Amino acid sequence: MTHRVFDPRDDTDARAVDVLLTDGTTSVLDTTPDQALALGALLPEPTAGSDEPVRWVHYPWRRTLVRVLGPVGFRRLRLDRNRDKLTLDEQRRALDLRVGVVGLSVGHAVAHTLALEGLCGELRLADFDQLELSNLNRVPATVFDLGVNKSVVAARRIAEVDPYLTVRTFPTGIDDAVIDDFLDGLDVVVEECDSVDAKFLVRERARARGIPVIMETSDGGVLDVERYDLDGERPFFHGLLGDLDRAGLARLTAPERAGLAPRILGAESITPRMAASLPHIGTSLSTWPQLAGDVALGGASVAAVVRAFVRGEAPASGRLRVGLDAALAHLEDPLSSGAGSPAAER
Questions:
Q1: Phi, psi of 310 (to 5 degrees)
Q2: Which residues, in sequence order, are CB contacts of 52 under 8 Å at separation 6+?
C-alpha cells in the first residue's frame, strides 16, 4: 500500500480526490496557503514553482489526504535550508542520482537521511524481513509499523517527508531473481544486510556493472567505499578476504563463514564491548548488539559519501572509522589550549 499524488489537471485524479474528501473516513490536512507564503518569501525569490498547481497526496496507511505545493515549489521550499552546504545547482544534480539500499535497519537511517537532504531522485529499498518489536531499539519506526515489511516501513516514512521522491521497494530482499532489476540504472549501492551471501551477490553484480558500493558497520563506525566504477577488477571488501568470490563462498563450511565478519571488520575495528559480547551470542545474547545512536551515525556517514558524489567530490576506495565513543577520549578543552581565552579572541 503506497501513497498517491493527485494532479488536479487530470479528471480521473480530480474525481478520486472528491470521493476521498466526502467519504467521511479520510482526514484532511491543508496548509498550502502558508506553504505558498513561505515559498514567496524565499531569498532569492524563486523563478519557478510558484504558479504550478498544488497537489493532494493520499496516505492510505494514515487514512489522510494532505495538500502540498507542486513538485518544483515543494522541493525548493523544503530544501531551502540546505543552502549553501548544497547549492541550488547541486540540489538539481542530485535529482539525477539513483541510490539503492539493501538492508533496512542501518539502511533505514541511511535512506531516510538521503531523503531528508534531497540527495537523490530515486531510492530503491530491499529487505525481506518484517519489523519486529526488538527492532525498535534502533529502527526509527513505531508500534504501528509492527509486522510490516521493513522496506515498506522506510518507504512510508520517506513518502511523508517527500511525496514526490520516487521510491521502489523490493520486499522479497535481494537474490538472483531480483538483483539485476534492483541494480539496473543505479549510480550508488548502499549495502547494509546481514546475509554474507547477499553481501557477495551485491558486490559481484555491482562490480560487473561498475557501480560503487558503500557499507557502514554500526560497531565502531566503520565506513567502507568500494569504487567498482573506477576499478572493475577490485577485490571485494578491499581484498581483506583475499580473492574469495561467490563460488568460493559456497564451498565454505559454517564455521568458516562465521569467521568472515571479523576478517572484514579487522580486529582493530571491533569495539571492546562488541568483542566482549561475541562469545555470548547464541547463549546469553540472542544476536549482535546494536545501538540507535550508532545506526543514526551510520546514516549520517553514508549520506556524507553520497553528498560528495553529488558535489563532484566523490572519495576514492577506502575505509574510515567514525567511532564517537573512541573520539570522546580525545576531547580538547579550549581553556587549556588557549582557544577560548580572551587573549585568543583578540
A1: -60, -40
A2: 69, 70, 71, 72, 73
- In the DSSP assignment, the letter for residue 6 is E
pTM: predicted TM-score of the whole model, two decimal places: 0.96
CB 65 within 8 Å of CB 274 = no
- Full pLDDT tens readout for the chain, 346 residues: 789 999 999 999 999 999 999 999 999 999 999 999 999 999 999 988 888 999 999 999 999 999 999 999 999 999 999 999 999 999 999 999 999 999 998 999 999 999 999 999 999 999 999 999 999 999 999 999 999 999 999 999 999 999 999 999 999 999 999 999 999 999 999 999 999 999 999 999 999 999 999 999 989 999 999 999 999 999 999 999 999 999 999 999 998 998 898 899 887 778 999 989 988 988 999 988 999 999 999 999 999 999 999 999 999 999 999 989 989 999 999 998 876 655 555 5
In sequence order, what are the beta bridge partners of 225? 214, 318
Helix, strand, or coil (residue 320): strand
Taking CA 155 as the corner, what is the angle to CA 151 and CA 158, rounded to the nearest 5 degrees?
A: 140
Strands (E), the chain: 4-6, 27-30, 55-59, 64-68, 98-102, 122-126, 166-170, 188-191, 213-217, 222-226, 318-321
Instruction: Please provide residue 191's backbone torsions phi and psi, each rounded to the nearest 5 degrees.
Output: -105, 115
CA 67 – CA 27 distance, rounded (Å): 11
Q: What residue type is assigned to position 189 of the chain?
A: V
Q: Closest Cα partner for 202 from 291, 149, 124?
A: 124
Q: Are 171 and 184 in contact (CB under 8 A)?
A: no
The 3-state DSSP class for residue 53 equals coil
C-alpha 250/C-alpha 208 separation (Å) is 19
